Amino acid sequence: MVVARAWYDLGQQEPILLESAQQLDALLDRMEVEAVEAGVPVAATIEWVDGADRRVTQFGLNPKEKRGFVGHVEDRKSVISTNGSSDSEPIFYDYTGNERPIAANAEIDLSTVRAAVHHFVAERGSRNESITWLDL
């Protein structure tokens, strides 16, 4: 059985296996709580690997601003969400203890980020086409 594998925790040695929507919601809820407690947006990576087929999404949650971002890598093509603005000022997300700058124009509504991550997991690594994507 192929399952989604998440990487979020500092020093994590093994992936968090996501076999259900409930497990994914538990991770997303924990991330939101930790972001609020730490006062910084947080990011994680989820991957689908099925033989030679590997798809990755990196996403961030910024609950204070009710925003976040989603990135997707598939077949060596990378895209990131965009809100259509030209604001490239960096917003720093914590990813496993490291700051990761994300352009402000990549931030979209938090509920859309959560829906996109659920889509990625439920649809075996496909990206949500309801999001406007920017090629990287």
Number of strands: 10
- The share of residues in extended strands comes to 35-45%
Provide the helix percentage: 10-25%
| Content-based structural category | alpha+beta
The tally of helices reads: 2
Q: Averaged pLDDT, please?
A: 95
Distance, first to last CA: 32 Å
Shape: globular
Number of domains: 1
CA-based gyration radius: 14 Å
Uncertain runs are none
Order of helices and strands: EEHEEEEEEEHE
Q: Note the main sheet.
A: 8 strands, antiparallel
Can you offer a commentary on this structure?
By secondary structure, the chain is an alpha+beta fold. The protein has one domain. It contains two helices and ten strands, in the order E-E-H-E-E-E-E-E-E-E-H-E. The protein has helices at residues 21-38, 110-122, and strands spanning 4-7, 16-18, 42-50, 53-62, 67-74, 77-81, 90-95, 98-103, 108-109, 133-135. Strands 1, 2, 3, 4, 5, 6, 9 and 10 form an eight-stranded antiparallel beta sheet that branches. Strand 4 (53-62) and strand 5 (67-74) form a beta hairpin. It starts with a strand and ends with a strand. The mean pLDDT is 95.
